[in-house]
Structure formats: structure tokens, C-alpha cells
Write a structure and sequence with these properties.
Elements: H1 2-43, H2 47-64, H3 76-91, H4 111-143, H5 146-160, H6 167-184, H7 188-202, H8 205-214, H9 219-244
Length: 245
């Protein structure tokens, strides 16, 4: 009888170890991505060279992880709602960004600035979605309950940004993007959400809305209304994506 119980305990321990390895793998992949960004920053500050490095890395990631990257349930309505959801998520940064006194006027951009935007708005978001909603989340959701997979992948995503000030917002974004890729089985939609977030904030969208409200009301009220707008857009967009999926 003791031998039977020992065997049962050993089997349980093996299962626990096997399950933990996927979580550990996710953390290791995240750490590898942080090291990659750090090495890129050390090697060069030339945004054009960085763009080339990111493109080559993207190709390698895609080839190495094709089984995690799926493009199902593609449709114009889902594409549109993903972009709108991304804008709503971008507005959630209102909680932590300082209130801007003005919005940058139209100006010409140097090639370095153009490639900075290409890297920040397109290449890095695509790479991060391949890694965090592709490899990490897909591994976790295949081996753990859905809620655990969403929460743990979002925590890994949050910690990878190494930014305590934005931690809550990054966690929320991780949850929304993981849930969207779960609903649609299509990595395109979190990519569009991520691109929308970065482009909307980098190009001054959040500040523009804050200033629009601030023209007729106080700063705290304008911030509050922007947050309410963000929550409303997120709630409606998620509901519609669920319906369309």
C-alpha cells in the first residue's frame, strides 16, 4: 500500500513539475526579450539599424514559432473593433501621464525620427505580440486554466516593461490582449490593438482629448472624463468582439 501511495505522489510531483515548466518557460522568454532590447540599445542608437535588426528578429521569431501564431476569424468588423479597443486602451494611460500644456504643432521629421516611429509603432508591437500573446500565452492556455493563463501572461507582460509607474495599466492591457487572442484565435487583433495604443499616444492623441475637455472644465474633471471614455470604449469594444467571435 505504501508503495502505491508513493507512486501516486511521484506521479503528482511529476505533473506539477511539468506544469510549472510552462510558466518558467514564459518567464525565460520574457527575460530573453528584455536582454535583446538591452543589447540593441548597447549596440547602436541608429534607429535605421535598429529597424533592420528588429525586422530580422521578427522573421526568425515567426519561423521558429509558426505553430503559436494563428490568423483565424479574420473580418473587417473585428479589425475595426480591435483598432477602436486599442484607442480606448491608449486613453487608460491618462491615469499616469502628466497633464500636457500643449500639443505639438505640425513639424517635419528627420529620418531618425521616422524610423523611431516605425520601430515604436509597428516593429516592436508586432514582435511583442508574437512573443507574449503568441508563444507565452498560447503555451500557458494550452496547459493551464484560461483565467490563470490570462493573469500569469499579463503579469509576465507587465514585469517585462520594468516600469512600476505604469504597472497597473500594462497588466490591464495584457489581460485585454490575451482575452482578445483567445476569443479570435488571431494574433492580428492584439497586434492592431498594440499598434493603436502606441500610435495614439506617441502622436499625441491622449493629450489632444485631455486638452479638448480642459478648455471647458478643470483638469481633474477632464482627466476623469477621459478615463470614463476609456472604460466605455473598452467595455463596448470587448462586448462587440465577443459577439463577432
Amino acid at each position: 500500500m505504501d508503495l502505491i501511495f508513493r507512486h501516486i505522489n511521484l506521479v503528482r510531483m511529476e505533473k506539477e513539475i511539468m506544469n510549472e515548466k510552462y510558466l518558467i518557460k514564459g518567464v525565460c522568454v520574457s527575460v530573453a526579450y528584455i536582454i535583446y532590447l538591452s543589447l540593441c540599445a548597447l549596440v547602436t542608437t541608429d534607429e535605421r539599424l535598429l529597424a533592420l535588426i528588429h525586422i530580422l528578429t521578427l522573421v526568425l521569431i515567426f519561423v521558429a514559432s509558426k505553430r503559436y501564431i494563428t490568423f483565424e476569424k479574420t473580418g473587417i468588423k473585428l479589425i475595426a473593433m480591435s483598432i477602436v479597443l486599442g484607442i480606448g486602451m491608449a486613453l487608460s494611460f491618462t491615469v499616469i501621464v502628466p497633464f500636457a500644456n500643449d500639443v505639438g504643432e505640425a513639424q517635419s521629421y528627420s529620418m531618425r525620427e521616422i524610423f523611431y516611429y516605425v520601430n515604436s509603432i509597428f516593429l516592436l508591437p508586432i514582435m511583442e505580440e508574437f512573443i507574449f500573446r503568441g508563444i507565452i500565452f498560447k503555451e500557458l492556455v494550452s496547459n493551464y486554466p484560461l483565467k490563470f493563463a490570462i493573469v500569469s501572461s499579463s503579469l509576465i507582460w507587465m514585469l517585462a516593461h520594468l516600469n512600476p509607474l505604469n504597472a497597473g495599466v500594462y497588466f490591464l492591457h495584457g489581460v485585454l490582449m490575451a482575452y482578445t487572442v483567445y476569443l479570435t484565435s488571431n494574433i492580428l487583433y492584439p497586434i492592431l490593438m498594440h499598434v493603436s495604443i502606441n500610435s495614439f499616444n506617441l502622436l499625441g492623441g491622449t493629450n489632444s482629448i485631455l486638452l479638448y475637455f480642459a478648455r471647458v472644465m478643470s483638469e481633474p474633471i477632464s482627466i476623469f472624463l477621459t478615463i470614463v471614455l476609456s472604460v466605455g470604449i473598452i467595455a463596448i469594444s470587448i462586448a462587440l468582439i465577443r459577439k463577432l467571435s
